[in-house]
Amino acid sequence: MFSLALKNLLFYKGRSITTFILTFISALLFIVYVAMMDGSHNSMLQNALKVYTGAIEVYKKGYRDIGGNEYLITDVKKIESVLAQIEGITSYTSRYETYGLLSSGEQSAAAMVVGIVPEKEIKMSELSSTLVEGSFLSATSQNCLYAGVDLVKKLNASVGDEISFIGAASDNSFAADIFKLCGTFKTGSFEFDASASFITRSYFDNLMYSQNKASYITIKLHDLKRVDQINRTITSQLDSDIESLSWKTLMKPMVEAMEVDSVFGYISMSLFFVVIFFVIMIFGFINVSSRVREFGTLRCIGLSRANIRTLLFYEMLILSTAAILVATPIGAAIAYYYSLYPIVIEGMSETYKEYGIISDEMPFNFDLFTIFWNVGVIYILNFLSILYPISYINAFKPIEATHHV
């Protein structure tokens, strides 16, 4: 049956070439499209994590739900010593967040003021790269404030101005100071840019009595795919009153948005495959219907319905395998190349920042498992497309088929 199928394919060259091209295009586009879609989701996640949120964050239980100084981490060094021993963690840093009133001249605004360790923050996030004016913080910045552009607009302030702060220290005592605006940033997230400001931790700790204390500790990983495994390891080594949360919990709205986007992406791709499926099926049906007498003759000389099914199966197997063997390495090569060298749209980075994206790169995702299941889908669709032509041709009786016009 296999050799007969091969001869038929060589005889019906037009039909064979058309089916080959349709299968080749389907497989190639599917591999490239899924790689681009997954890559864009990974890029969205990476960009979001680069701005401020960590891959994993460690809190005292109750801080995220209730908040307040009663739920601060009170032994940062102990937890950091645990994190230093866990494989897969690239870097980590503690942050002390508080809310207070910032004032400049006659303008005031409620804001989040965060004490950070600048040299660690540069490794953890892209806050420094979102600089608009002035300079980022350093270990010697003292009372320098690094604030969002929309918060600065509220205060009607500019770099170099003095900004007064009133708030509550970690022991709930009164805290007040005069900061100097040394830099402004813009991440593209209006809410964040309108409420967030940062100051060097060493200076802020003296003001807030927050030495060895933190609102939370944020963690950066070498491989985000291991986040659940590393998170379980961290949780197992922490005290019972400390919780460790991954980005899947911290950024749940984004996770849900990416899942919805994936669904719509696959729906769009499915419509394309439906068209390809019916094109191949109709083309196969036309081809089979024109060969009724041929199949009738084969039945008369002894071939059974099962033999006819096997023959058509082999024809599709040969064409599909040949097309996929060509399309798969090409699609994989494209995905691999653009995973290493992402597509960059020159001059668009500033526009992207308006949407909270701090990179103008469009990377692809190269994953062999994804490529293999993409190929598997094409195989299944191709074989499904021959079911109706098989049932049609096998509905004829041998003598009836030989007289078919």
Largest sheet: 6 strands, mixed, barrel
Classify the beta-strand content into a percent band.
15-25%
Terminal-residue CA separation: 25 Å
Order of helices and strands: HHEHEEHEEHEEHEHEHEHHHHEHEHHH
- How many domains is the backbone divided into? 2
**Helix count from the secondary structure assignment:** 16
- Helix content, binned percent: 40-55%
Describe the structure.
The protein has helices spanning 2-11, 13-51, 76-83, 118-124, 149-155, 190-193, 201-208, 227-237, 247-250, 252-289, 292-300, 305-340, 349-353, 368-384, 387-394, 398-402; strands at 56-60, 89-104, 107-116, 131-134, 144-148, 162-168, 174-185, 196-200, 216-221, 242-246, 343-344, 361-362. It is an alpha+beta fold. The protein folds into 2 domains: 2-49 and 254-402, no CATH class; 54-250, no CATH class. A 6-stranded mixed β-barrel has the order 2-3-8-5-7-6, surrounded by 4 helices. A two-stranded antiparallel ribbon has the order 11-12. A hairpin with a 5-residue loop joins strand 6 and strand 7. The mean pLDDT is 85.
